Amino acid sequence: KEFVKIESITNHYLFINTVLQSACVFCNVKSNCRQQVFRTNQHIKVPISHCEDAIYSQGETVTLEVEGGSLIHAALLIYSTPLFGLIIAALVSTEIKLGELESVAFSFVSFFLGMVIAKKILEKFDLTLHINK
Known about the structure:
It is a single chain. With 133 residues, the chain is α+β, with helices and mostly antiparallel strands. Helix content is 40%, strand content 22%. It has two helices and five strands; from the N terminus they run ββββααβ. Strands 3-2-1-4-5 form a five-stranded antiparallel sheet. The chain is rod-shaped and about 65 Å long.
């Protein structure tokens, strides 16, 4: 759970901003414990369909929950895509008999290409968010 502040409301979306807490809601450790899902002051657009049936007002602080399965899928995508690029680079460089320096360079390029692809996919990835009062 993260505390967020509602910035504005339209017919289809709530526009929210993450709120920096002086202590984590789970263990009262200071906010730099890295247990937060979202960055501080991150602006997020949430469809109204993901909100419980309640009346929300601008400036109100509510809780934002992310389904655990969504985070697992996103993490798998982030870590596996660059790794897959490295594995493909190793197989291809071995198959076409590249030299050591060329293999290393090809692996770096494949790794960073995997990171770019993962980022592009994650931009379209739908984290299942729920807002509750």
